[in-house]
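for the record, two folds in this file. i put them one after another cuz i was lazy. first one right below, seq on top, structure tokens after. the second one comes after a little note so u can tell where it starts
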Amino acid sequence: MSTTPLTAQRIKRAQEIASAGGMKEAITACAIPLRADMTVSEAMVIGLLLQEVRKFIGIFGHGSTEIGEVLRIYEAAGLLKTYPVRHETEAVHAATALRWVTGEKAAVITSIGPGALHALAGSLTPLSNGLGVWFLLGD
């Protein structure tokens, strides 16, 4: 299977991060350059990895396919895990429960449309309980 240069760069970067043992370790060991050309989607995933967010829950579609592609590559490298759900409010409640019960951090992803508003409505649950959940809304 041939890959585009962008995909090849992402795969290489993800493998380097995984080989170093994680994002912070890769930076400390200079396994990856401190400056790199990349898409905003990949930069967001790297930023979340730096904040120890390794679980991504949501629905991929219009407005989130690019970040879904980055997550696919980074998941294949063993750096994170994605969980598909059928409703955006369900994604928020799952991320909230994960943080509440285990302390693990999670990000919620939505596509463009009313799902972003559903996730926003669901965000009141972690907010009212003082729990951190990250949101990447397609809108």
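(here's the note) second protein begins now
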Amino acid sequence: MKLTFDTKQTALAIRVDQQAELPDALERIGLGGSRSVLVVVGGASNISEADFPRIKRLFTEVLAPIAESLGAYVVDGGTDAGVMQLMGEARTQIGAKFALIGVTPESKVALPNQQEPAADLIPLEPNHTHFVLVPGKNWGDESPWISQVATVLANNAPSITVLLNGGEITFEDAFSSVNSGRLVVVIAGSGRTADILADALRGQATDERAKKLAKSGTLQYIDLIDIEKGVENLGKIIKGLLSN
């Protein structure tokens, strides 16, 4: 199905009920082959005003340009909030062409062509190119789907998850990536869940989930302070991981 936003931007969307349907479903909306995948998870809200400018720079100067230069797929939660909004806006700001795929529970979002969506539904981010609408009654139900979509799209090409900020659901996103064997790069200094996980990686954990994730061997962290020293170093690290 084709979605048309108020901004006149369009995206292709597909509904799926079972993860086994994903390869065929993604092919039907033009997403096939095998290429690097960047998964972005983290804060949908509550990013502090102090952290916001640096996090925004990370998207416009590091993540979006890397995805564009590698021709990578980018997968996130697809709603018009937080890191997903930043990813969409960064793609448009730099004039990028990479596919940006939002994976979200259909029952929780307002589709742009709905006449009168319920007040509690969250709008989709209009700069995304594709959406995968999945089952689920609660936020967080999409976490395993995001991870599986990334696995299917990568098709044995390199893929990593970048985790910034975040709340409770971000822990679920991290576990889903780890369970898929996908490296999670935690952006330390971006606040909340990311900082809890970075502390765990430094051996300063207080949260049991963070301890378990840190012991998985599939987490590492990059300090956001590095963006002040220059985005080049941070970009090289992430690009290197996606190019291996």
